[in-house]
């Protein structure tokens, strides 16, 4: 049975690695639902957060293939319950819908969204949350006209307590 | 003259200031490379210029095509166990390497491939002969890296060799921009020591070893499948001790062939689609299946859902990504085969499984009666591929290195060639690359000049890299070339016969007169069309000092049997 999984990949900071990572998925025709890349708490270690929907069997193979890559330090996978995760969405709407009537303003409030920037002709609203939450706001704002919408990839922190620093220390000791 | 040479030495050893191209060449020398295969061109010219100065230390073999260069490097690596090195220019030179890189990747062959690249300021501009070789080769390299500054060269090369040869070996590509080849650097070389993101050592898990030993010790019908892992970790001795102590019949994949001598009493033959009858059948009879350094390729397993379901599976493997990939392991022992095998053997009880072995013998007999005896001593007029191999065996006594191309002759060579020494069978296993044989044989011969190297090729594959006859001619490489000519793309024709109603679409071949072609390259040649001429021709070939070309006309529509048809289970192997 296919399920949604979040894969966290920790890598060296190298040009071209993104390509190596995505090849593992595309070669097996696995759709990457979202991907976010950033640095991590350890200097020179990059972190990829990748969301896919797959069987656990395929997922395990993919994670092993990821770890096999020379410049990938470690890769982990988690189900939604094992992580704390978040996404960020931005909505550009006409400013008049917030000024003219109270309806749109109420919607923004009820979704606990934030107004990031107000210009005379448009306003940018920010909402952090899970996909269903950012999507719900999208649906509510839609009748008023959304000029632009963007949602970031999922970023996630795992609940287990082993730190990246200690994992890397172990790996570095192995090669001493 | 003298002063110039002194100055050169001074440049290299004292001040250590040199160009990137010189640094590359020096780094290869520091890695103990003495032979490379390649083809020059604009973007790699500074390197060739640097090679000119060190010809006595670093021999460059000019092949006739970059594909020839990389297959030669593969043949060299497979015959010697060392890293093969090849070189090409940017653009078309680099793309011509790709087939060989893919072949080396799937067959775990340690290679360092060096490509020239356009000036770094031209990257991404569609400059003359620019291709994104890093992007193109990424899916088929173990690691690749683009050098744009000369000072990166020593470390990049050290790292390339380290990665290519360690762990599960594989091909590495280093792309060097032309400006980095010209730029000056201060040279110092340090062998690469390892990196945190690439761990080559697995500490043996004692519990898993114990579990594996328990399964093996209590097995009544154990069977070992071995692959190239045994050869790559040079574990041939440990492997033999292991199977002998526990008395376990052992069957090989074509990549593992020659790791155990052919006539060993526990060697029960070849696995897979055209393998032997007994090991395929018994895979579905054994109670414990011990896989050593092999990856359960689909050509070996047939239908996975009906593969060894009755057996407990023990998998000794260096690459964690291979565990449970195709066949679920009940016990997985991660590690280098040499270490795993010796640790495991310690825990085993001495044993023999004579009645179980007897069951293999019975099936062997059956295969002999229905297939082998007819193949080796045909009752019909047309020559068979098997009898040619049989004749070669008689002459070489298992001491030769046999290199094959891809097709029917490959399967026949794997089935019938006899070996006494490891690293003696060189074949394109995972990728099945036609055109592999001739250049790979050249590389093998250059790596093992004292060994007889026999290239067994089909008339189709021969014409895919036939240009390498030029390399043989120029370098006087004493390879023995045997073309088994059936005037067909035989293996494809066999499938058309069996599965496509004999509709021979594009598999018949009108061949040129190979004798004249080969003679044009100054190679001694003979053609055999009748059985009575075979024996003397083969012995003439093996007694001949230089290169020799033997063409044998074999039955046009002969088939290779036994066969596990695609989609069938290994135990459904057909004898005819
Ligand atoms: C580069 C490449 N192209 C196509 C194939 C598909 N193929 C596999 S075997 C074969 C026929 C080989 O014919 P030949 O070289 O005459 O050898 P034979 O089978 O007759 O011994 C072909 C076309 C291949 N393996 N490699």
**Strand order within the widest sheet of chain B?**
3-2-4-5-7-6
Give the CATH topology of the largest domain in chain B.
Answer: Rossmann fold
Helix content of chain A: 25-40%
CATH architecture of the largest domain in chain B: 3-Layer(aba) Sandwich
- Gross CATH architecture of the largest domain in chain A: 2-Layer Sandwich
The string of secondary-structure elements of chain A, in order, is EHEEHEEHHEEHEEH
Strand content of chain A: 35-45%
Unreliable sequence segments of chain B: none
Number of helices of chain A: 6
CATH class of the largest domain in chain B, please? Alpha Beta
Total beta strands of chain B:
20
Blueprint (SSEs and pairs):
The complex is a heterodimer of chains A (176) and B (576).
Chain A: E1 2-12, H1 17-27, E2 34-39, E3 45-55, H2 56-68, E4 72-78, E5 83-94, H3 96-99, H4 103-110, E6 114-118, E7 122-129, H5 131-141, E8 148-151, E9 155-158, H6 164-174
Antiparallel strand pairs in A: 1-3, 1-4, 2-3, 5-7, 5-8, 5-9, 6-7
Chain B: H1 2-15, E1 17-19, H2 20-30, E2 35-38, H3 45-52, E3 59-62, H4 66-80, E4 84-88, H5 92-95, H6 98-106, E5 111-117, H7 133-137, E6 143-147, H8 153-165, E7 171-177, H9 178-182, E8 184-186, H10 206-218, E9 222-226, H11 229-232, H12 236-246, E10 250-252, E11 267-270, H13 277-283, E12 288-292, H14 298-301, E13 312-317, E14 331-334, H15 337-346, H16 354-376, H17 385-396, E15 401-404, H18 408-416, E16 425-426, H19 437-447, E17 453-458, H20 459-462, H21 469-475, E18 480-485, H22 490-499, H23 514-520, E19 524-528, H24 531-543, E20 548-553
Helix pairs in contact in B: 2-3, 2-8, 4-6, 4-19, 10-15, 12-15, 13-16, 17-18, 17-24
The complex binds thiamine diphosphate (TPP).
């Amino acid at each position: 049975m296919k399920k949604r999984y979040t894969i966290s990949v920790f890598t060296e900071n190298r040009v071209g690695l993104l390509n190596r990572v995505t090849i593992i998925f595309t070669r097996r025709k696995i759709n990457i639902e979202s991907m976010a890349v950033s640095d991590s708490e350890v200097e020179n270690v990059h972190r990829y957060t990748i969301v896919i929907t797959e069987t656990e069997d395929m997922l395990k193979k993919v994670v092993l293939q990821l770890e096999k890559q020379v410049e990938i330090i470690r890769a982990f996978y988690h189900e939604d319950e094992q992580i704390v995760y978040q996404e960020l969405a931005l909505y550009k709407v006409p400013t008049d819908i917030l000024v003219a009537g109270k309806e749109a303003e109420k919607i923004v409030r009820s979704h606990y969204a934030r107004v990031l920037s107000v210009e005379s002709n448009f306003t940018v609203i920010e909402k952090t949350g899970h996909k269903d939450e950012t999507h719900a706001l999208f649906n509510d704002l839609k009748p008023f006209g959304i000029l632009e919408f963007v949602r970031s990839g999922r970023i996630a922190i795992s609940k287990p307590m082993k730190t990246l620093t200690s994992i890397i220390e172990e790996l570095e000791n192995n090669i001493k | 003259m003298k002063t110039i040479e002194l100055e050169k030495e001074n440049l290299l050893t004292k001040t250590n200031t040199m160009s990137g191209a010189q640094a590359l060449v020096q780094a290869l020398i520091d890695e103990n490379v003495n032979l490379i295969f390649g083809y020059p061109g604009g973007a790699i010219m500074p390197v060739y210029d640097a090679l000119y100065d060190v010809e006595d230390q670093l021999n460059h073999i000019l092949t006739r095509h970059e594909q020839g260069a990389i297959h030669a490097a593969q043949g060299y690596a497979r015959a010697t166990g060392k890293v093969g090195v090849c070189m090409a220019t940017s653009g078309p030179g680099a793309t011509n390497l790709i087939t060989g890189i893919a072949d080396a990747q799937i067959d775990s062959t340690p290679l360092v491939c060096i490509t020239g690249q356009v000036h770094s300021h031209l990257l991404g501009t569609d400059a003359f002969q620019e291709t994104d070789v890093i992007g193109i080769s990424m899916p088929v390299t173990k690691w690749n890296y683009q050098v744009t500054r000369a000072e990166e060269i020593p470390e990049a090369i050290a790292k390339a060799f380290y990665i290519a040869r360690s762990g599960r070996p594989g091909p590495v590509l280093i792309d060097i921009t032309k400006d980095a080849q010209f730029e000056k650097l201060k040279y110092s070389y340090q062998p690469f020591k390892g990196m945190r993101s690439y761990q080559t050592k697995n500490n043996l898990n004692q519990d898993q070893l114990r579990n594996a030993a328990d399964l093996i010790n209590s097995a009544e019908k154990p069977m070992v499948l071995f692959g190239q892992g045994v050869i790559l970790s040079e574990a041939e001795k440990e492997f033999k001790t292991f199977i002998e102590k526990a008395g376990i019949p052992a069957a090989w994949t074509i990549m593992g062939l020659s790791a155990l001598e052919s006539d060993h009493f526990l060697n029960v033959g070849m696995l897979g689609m055209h393998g032997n009858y007994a090991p395929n059948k018994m895979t579905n009879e054994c109670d414990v299946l011990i896989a050593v350094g092999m990856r359960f390729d689909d050509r070996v397993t047939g239908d996975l859902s009906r593969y060894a379901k009755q057996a407990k599976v023990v998998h000794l493997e260096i690459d964690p990504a291979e565990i449970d990939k195709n066949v679920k392991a009940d016990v997985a022992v991660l590690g280098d085969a040499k270490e795993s095998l010796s640790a495991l053997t310690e825990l085993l009880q001495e044993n023999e499984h004579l009645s179980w072995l007897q069951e293999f013998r019975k099936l062997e007999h059956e295969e002999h009666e229905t297939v082998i005896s007819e193949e080796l001593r045909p009752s019909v007029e047309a020559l068979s591929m098997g009898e040619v191999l049989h004749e070669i065996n008689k002459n070489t006594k298992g001491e030769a290195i046999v290199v094959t191309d891809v097709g029917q002759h490959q399967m026949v060579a794997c089935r019938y060639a006899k070996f006494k020494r490891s690293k003696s069978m060189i074949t394109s296993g995972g990728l099945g690359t036609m055109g592999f044989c001739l250049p790979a044989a050249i590389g093998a011969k250059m790596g093992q000049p004292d060994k007889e190297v026999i290239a067994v090729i089909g008339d189709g594959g021969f014409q895919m890299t036939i240009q390498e006859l030029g390399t043989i001619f120029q370098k006087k490489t004493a390879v023995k070339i045997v073309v088994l000519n059936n005037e067909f793309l035989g293996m494809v024709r066999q499938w058309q016969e069996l599965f496509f109603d004999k509709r021979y679409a594009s598999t018949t071949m009108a061949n040129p007169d190979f004798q004249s072609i080969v003679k044009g390259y100054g190679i001694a040649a003979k053609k055999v069309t009748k059985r009575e001429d075979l024996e003397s021709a083969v012995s003439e070939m093996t007694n001949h000092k230089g290169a020799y070309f033997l063409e044998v006309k074999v039955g046009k529509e002969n088939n290779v049997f036994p066969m596990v048809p695609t989609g069938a289970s290994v135990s459904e192997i057909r004898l005819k």
